[in-house]
């Protein structure tokens, strides 16, 4: 009986967390700015380099490897240096979504 109670407790906890996240998802999905952000990042990705592999490598270097913030705080970088459109897009949107992340303590 004790195991069943513990199992039930965990199930209720995870269901509660799932409902909490579903509320955030519904909230963000209804924001027209999210569609604009996704389309902008897609455009930035596509214009960054000639191939997806080169884009991935370049962005990993810019936002992870060369990021001056320590591991665990990489999100502190609003944008990486460079002339690529992606960096300007990141500069425009990253602060908004970082704020949401912090407000929700995710």
Protein architecture, described:
This protein is an all-alpha fold. The chain is elongated, with a radius of gyration of 19 Å. The protein has helices at 2-29, 32-48, 52-65, 85-103. Helix 2 (32-48) runs antiparallel to helix 4. The two termini are 34 Å apart.
Radius of gyration: 19 Å
- Amount of beta strand: under 5%
The share of residues in helices is over 70%
Q: Give the integer mean of the pLDDT values.
A: 90
Q: What layout of secondary structure does this protein have?
A:
Elements lengths: L1 H28 L2 H17 L3 H14 L19 H19 L3
Quickly list its features.
74% helix, 106 residues, mainly alpha, 4 helices
Short description:
The chain contains four helices and no strands.
């Amino acid at each position: 009986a004790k195991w069943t109670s513990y199992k039930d407790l965990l199930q209720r906890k995870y269901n509660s967390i799932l409902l909490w996240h579903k509320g955030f998802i519904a909230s963000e999905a209804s924001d027209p700015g999210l569609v604009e952000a996704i389309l902008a990042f897609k455009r930035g990705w596509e214009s960054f380099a000639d191939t997806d592999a080169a884009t991935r490598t370049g962005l990993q270097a810019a936002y992870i490897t060369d990021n001056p913030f320590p591991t665990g705080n990489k999100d502190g970088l609003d944008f990486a240096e460079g002339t690529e459109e992606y960096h300007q897009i990141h500069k425009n949107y990253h602060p908004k979504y970082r704020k949401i992340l912090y407000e929700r303590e995710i």
